[in-house]
Amino acid sequence: MSRGGTLLRVLSWNVHGCVGRGGLRDPDRVAAVLEAVEPDVAALQEIDSRSARAVARDLFAYFEERFGWRSVAARTISAKDGHYGHIVLSRWPLESLGTLDLTVPRFEPRMAIFGSVSLPDCQVTIMAVHLGLWWPERRKQYARLKERLAALPRPIVALGDFNDFPGRGLAERNLTPPLEGVPALATFPSRFPLLPLDRIWYSEPLELVSFGALREAGHLSDHLPLVASLRLRAPAQADDEGR
Of 4, 220, 232, 239, which shows the fewest CB atoms inside 10 Å? Predict the structure, then answer.
């Protein structure tokens, strides 16, 4: 939220275990991007704290401890040496609303994260996902999300790696309404972006102010970070537009 209390900046980024080009694992470089962008809410996918891969760092705790932010995590894979999954971070008070199991048999375990962010103007419900790679898998996951979405308090921001390929349109058919999508931008692969796998969605009374993919961070992961600024419309403005 900006100092004027009118903007909410959100970021979604599949950080690929904080492994960039050349195989260098460096969470500090990922953190530097977050510091520069200053999101109010960030959803990071492919957080990998298994010690053999994470250089003995617990990445689920790393970002929260570095910034002093609140976090809600989904640890979808657990091993003796750590965990793998995704996380929501917020500079504002964040209450967990639980997770939703999206796992489809014979596919990688998946979960959705739900949280409520307390902004100066209102409560915003957050839904963060990292959906499956295969169309039949995602179709079942969207059916579960659609049912849960109908019961969530608004306004809602949904973000993450949806793995939705052009021409499939599963996200559009299942999330709208009540959500409206930030225009799709190519975020994968980061070196030559072709596919809009990472998306941000929002509901009224939020409205889109600006959005973009951060090409300058392309060397830090195989996905580009996606950023959007949303404005909470005043009640009088929303009423006028509804007439």
Answer: 4
Paired tokens of 30: 């990922």
Question: Residue 77 belongs to a domain with what CATH number?
Answer: 3.60.10.10
What residue ranges in the chain does DSSP mark as E strands? 7-14, 41-48, 70-79, 82-90, 94-101, 111-118, 123-130, 156-161, 180-181, 198-202, 206-213, 226-232
pLDDT of res. 228: 98
State how far the Cα of 240 lies from the Cα of 77, in Å rounded to an integer: 48
* Beta carbons of 87 and 47 less than 8 angstroms apart: yes
In a domain, 1, yes or no: no
Separation of alpha carbons 5 and 219, rounded Å: 33
Q: Which residues contact 233 (CB under 8 A, 6 or more apart)?
A: 204, 205, 206, 207, 241
Q: Give the pTM.
A: 0.91
Number of domains in the chain: 1
pLDDT in tens, 133-189: 999 999 999 999 999 999 999 999 999 999 987 666 789 889 998 999 999 999 999
Mean of per-residue pLDDT scores for the chain: 90
Spatial separation of the C-alpha atoms in residues 39 and 37, rounded to whole Å: 6
Residue range(s) defining the domain that contains residue 184: 7-242
Q: Is residue 181 part of a domain?
A: yes
